[in-house]
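Hey,
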Amino acid sequence: MNKMTPSKTALRSVDEITSSRRLRRMRKADWSRRLVQEHHIRVDDLIWPIFLIEGENREEDVAAMPGVKRMTVDLAVRAVERAAKLGIPAVATFPKIDISKKDDRGSAILDADNLINKATRAIKKAVPEIGVITDVALDPFTSHGHDGILSNGVILNDETVEQIAHAAVLQAAAGADIIAPSDMMDGRIGAIRDALDANGFQEVAIMSYATKFASAFYGPYRDAIGTAGLLKGDKKTYYIDPANTDEAIRETEQDLVEGADMIMVKPGLPYLDIIRRLKDTFAVPTFAYQVSGEYAMIKAAAMNGWIDGEKAMLESLLAFKRAGCDGILTYFAVEVAERLKA
């Protein structure tokens, strides 16, 4: 069998091929890579979501989220003090309340002394310099696990909006700096803005979950707030279809018209294209929520030795910055802040 003979044609030099534009020059050393790095993770980019439970001096592991704990208010205050010392600008609170306090309307959200409001008052008293972000969705408070009032299998939009607007005022009165409604009801941003302004809370901002998708990545979170076994049906009648991008634009535009000060995309990594499109379209403060499923996947893979967990964590956060985020809600916040301080 005849063997193929390599061509004798002279190859051009690399300098000829590239016109002497060698793009590896600035990658040759650590110092030069650092010098030209386009995006950076800073502690100022981080918002730390925390989970709350009733009682005192007690914490519970969230099984599906290694390293994450539910905390009573007293322990949460201590944790937030630590976060503030690390320079984390804000925390976001999410309650797990006792089943006995849940009903089909989520009425406990209107209790001025509910778990969210107690935590806000305690945190702002002990750590006034840190921002507190509260969610007014009903799902932690409903017996059916939905974000709205449920009647005959239908989520009642307008009744839900009225209730969460009242709840937003109570949260502002407790000291919340930012109200972040995640329920995706039509008109909620305008109703909350009106209610806050009418009650003297003009300085309280609104972070809209402008594009919250009907995602498979929320599972561990629902376990964390105790709704995993309660949800009847799904949330597709009010969350956005993961296949849609134009709808995300319309939702965001509406929320900004109604008075949102900043917008959020949730989940995060599967929707980087949405983040980029919203930032380019609206040029407003834009955030992403690196949700429980995203966190759990990185942690689980790292625990099994399949990936380098720290590198994957930082790479995932850089992806948000590269896509256009001004900040990220992430359960990695303290871990990242400690690494940045080291």
